[in-house]
Amino acid sequence: MNIELAAKQLEVLGNPTRLRVYRTVVRAGRGGLPVNQVQERLGIPASTLSHHLQRLVQNGLVSQERHGTTLICRAVYPAMNALIGFLADECCADEGCAAEASERAV
User: Given CB 3.0 to 4.6 Å as the disulfide criterion, which of 20, 63, 75, 77 pairs with 26?
Assistant: First the structure.
């Protein structure tokens, strides 16, 4: 994952309502959740939900699939895992340098 994509996805998730929507869809699992159920669970107006879902879809975090008159929202788990991995990839990478510096200071 490149830093530009990670920044865009983190920006999208930086909105409290959008983060709640995303967590609701992630929680639903691979089967996804119809839009009306997302709306019921969060208690937000349809127009607000539509706006937030659109941003999540545009940035590759959620996909939507139509089944008749029902629109199913699914988390794109590979995208979520890539973002989490990007954040954790270099966790403590400089710790060895810090440990060496503190040993020299003693």
Answer: 75
Nearest-10 Cα torsion for 6, 7, 9, 12: 170
Q: What is the pTM of this model?
A: 0.86
Q: 83, 10 in Cβ contact below 8 A?
A: yes
pLDDT along the chain (106 residues), means of 10: 95 97 98 97 96 98 96 98 94 73 56
Q: Rounded distance, CA 18 to CA 50, Å?
A: 10
Domain 3-105 has CATH 1.10.10.10: yes
Kindly report the number of other CB atoms within 10 A of residue 55's CB atom: 18
